[in-house]
Protein 1
Amino acid sequence: MSDDEKIYKKILKAIVEHQLPPGSRLPEDKLSEAFGVSRTGIRKVLHRLALEHFVVITRNKGAQVNHPSEEEALEVFDSRILVEPQLMSAVLKHWKKENSDHFRDIVTQERLAQENSDLAGSIQITARFHYELARLAGNSVLAAFVEQLCYRSSLVIAAFGTVSSVGGVSCDCGDHVQLLDLLDKGDSEAVQQWMLEHLQSIKGSLILAGQDEQNIDFNRLFS
Amino acid sequence: MSDDEKIYKKILKAIVEHQLPPGSRLPEDKLSEAFGVSRTGIRKVLHRLALEHFVVITRNKGAQVNHPSEEEALEVFDSRILVEPQLMSAVLKHWKKENSDHFRDIVTQERLAQENSDLAGSIQITARFHYELARLAGNSVLAAFVEQLCYRSSLVIAAFGTVSSVGGVSCDCGDHVQLLDLLDKGDSEAVQQWMLEHLQSIKGSLILAGQDEQNIDFNRLFS
DNA sequence: AAATATATTATTGTATACAATCCAAAAAAG
DNA sequence: CTTTTTTGGATTGTATACAATAATATATTT
């Protein structure tokens, strides 16, 4: 892996794991010193992160970690809601015993991270569950899109996550094991439905300041 | 608009309009001379184009216009097939008379470009029809994704397009007016179905065939 | 003459210097 | 004391110099 790639991954990791919270400034000289390279390489990485919406660059003012707007937050999850459930039938077609084992291993790691209150690891591994699953659908263009959406989701959670969603790292609404059981059963319809409700549940758990009391759905709240 | 942005758009335009065919080399010094800026700005643009899969950069060998693999070609269209029809119901919800007028204007321009055998303009305007429609769904994250897929489609057509699909710029399989009529009628089901068949038809018209490379005068092309 | 080795050339990779811009603090005016 | 102006420092934007690498051409050897 190239030098730039390593720096890119390290900074991205720090962002999605909430070690660099939204709004954090990312000065080029500080970073170049920290990574032991010149500003040139850092600038390349920062521009890439900007294209992928992880940082915002303002001319003559530099880069800072993106603080997603409420609108962006909803759009990211709506995108996942549109794409991820649709991928499930293709995933099921390729589903093998070894996949099941692999993903059950991931879930174990998820549990472990949560038990140890390892927030950073928990976020990383939970995102991995989703985008590695998407990869099984066999379309790398869509897989790359979903992977980016998962990382952006982590940023959204950092900005708008509830206590529970941060503690359960955006997936407190059920256990990924349930999905794996459905996949093993081969129930395509149920798998798709589960994924849909899973993502809607996370989206619903976001706290959006613009949400006033009149917009609360009491039917859903009390049922 | 910033200087880089202008250069980016010009090169991207040249690529999607098939003025820089797949495989064309893009040497930094030639481009910096043509645009009258240093290599620094050119490199930034080339790296962006690489992230978006319009060019491929090989270490110490530089950039060249991406020649999509057959696999990539199919994946791009499968992605559009998964996303675009799904957006149509949201598009219909926002559909207004003024939208209809606007898109009928676009179709007129499409016809005009085709009649004048203006291949470049035809490609551009046809892509615009699709991604401006996607924008009406009200999700900018998905809209940006579709826009990129439309541009990548142009590249795919450059590599694998049939004579008819190039002549009709990937949309010989029917007229976009049909879709507009369905939208005006408000038939959500039919709109979605039309878009699905439309994209499947284009995908089906792709074929495997080589393409040759030639020497390009960058000064002339960009000045 | 064929094959290998070497030298040359062209092109990209990286660091750095300098210019342009913005921000904040201090000085001057009202 | 408040407001405006100015000045200094910090940070990014851009160009360029030099190093590293790959491709090509030339020379040498078998």
Note: DSSP finds eleven helices and three strands in chain A.
Protein 2
Amino acid sequence: MIAEELLLEFGAEIITYTKEEYLFEEGKKAHYYFQVKSGEVKMNNFNAQGKEFIQSIFSCPRSFGEPPLFSDIPYPANAVAVSKAEVFRLKKEVFLDLLLKYPKVHLSVTRGMAKRLYYKAIMASEISSEDPEHRILTLLDYLKKDVHHLNEPFSFKVNITRQQIADLSGLRVETVIRATKSLEKKEELKIKNRKLYR
Amino acid sequence: MIAEELLLEFGAEIITYTKEEYLFEEGKKAHYYFQVKSGEVKMNNFNAQGKEFIQSIFSCPRSFGEPPLFSDIPYPANAVAVSKAEVFRLKKEVFLDLLLKYPKVHLSVTRGMAKRLYYKAIMASEISSEDPEHRILTLLDYLKKDVHHLNEPFSFKVNITRQQIADLSGLRVETVIRATKSLEKKEELKIKNRKLYR
DNA sequence: TAATAATTATGATTTAGGTCATAAATTACA
DNA sequence: TGTAATTTATGACCTAAATCATAATTATTA
């Protein structure tokens, strides 16, 4: 996250995307630094059969899509607005210039990438080795602790749909529905009028 | 990757690990920057049933395990020597100091993390959505192009075992063996006395 | 160089989770 | 406020890959 004033000072634009609109596409080169101002943006992939995999969902003040700004690699996934979203957009060259001028900002960008690498490492291991219930709990615990900074049991009202949980954990929506019901029986989750609590 | 002279100048130690020896463990706090000098190191997880997932395999001059140096997160996986390995080890505080003194080094460390994030994003999507043959080809193509910088067809002699391919792609070794044979029939791979070529 | 371990190989069987179909409940929106 | 779309829900079934068993081949090391 980079302070809004600093972004504007360096000439960042604020762009409004409508729901489902693409910000960039898998395989393309990166030209901008992006940071969410309002709304939500997801990064995703589709396989040949049209199954979606959501890499991550970002809301204010998260940035995303930095890796290809640093290295000569294309975007590994698309970025799509989940809802109407306002996004800061800063030209690549200006962004890199900013990092050199402000080492602390560079460090905070690095810190953000470190956290995402942590999340990816955890989910890769989960998706490859764990059963649906385990995967879902790990995902929800990550969101609860590392994103929403909550600790009390059942204090986290899950704000994503079963379908999104499925797409984030590599499962199918029916499996998520069945697994969450089973987790409710085991008192790992609460379900109050269809909303999950963890 | 940080130049060896610079590492030594900042007081890095060179530590020799024997095959199978642990460098650090999942869940622990990070105190050092690590960089391979010789041999190979892998990062891995084990699930409750003992199934291994390999996050990555690192050889000279790759660094690994930086994310928890930047953010207050534990190691998401173990680091284990695949073979006898010599590793540069630099104290966390000295490492961060070095980055501030040498912005270009900071940028190259960031670049390294960016590449790993790219690999993780690709593999997460593969493991979650693709069939065994697709996963294996994506993994091998990544190793071929992005690690070994090769381009010619079948110029990449795969230097990891079927078991390691399985542990990197979330499959079982029998599945990898069957899938690679099928890929050979489709002329996507060559197999010359048990070695894979891509 | 003999013994042991690791790797590759192959068939038979099992099963978890995907797929398909259908519907109720809730939410969005025109 | 009524209609459409989305989300949650549930049962039946099917299949891809895991599991299990067993062995040949190659590599390691004692």
Note: Chain A touches chain B through 42 residues (CB under 8 Å).
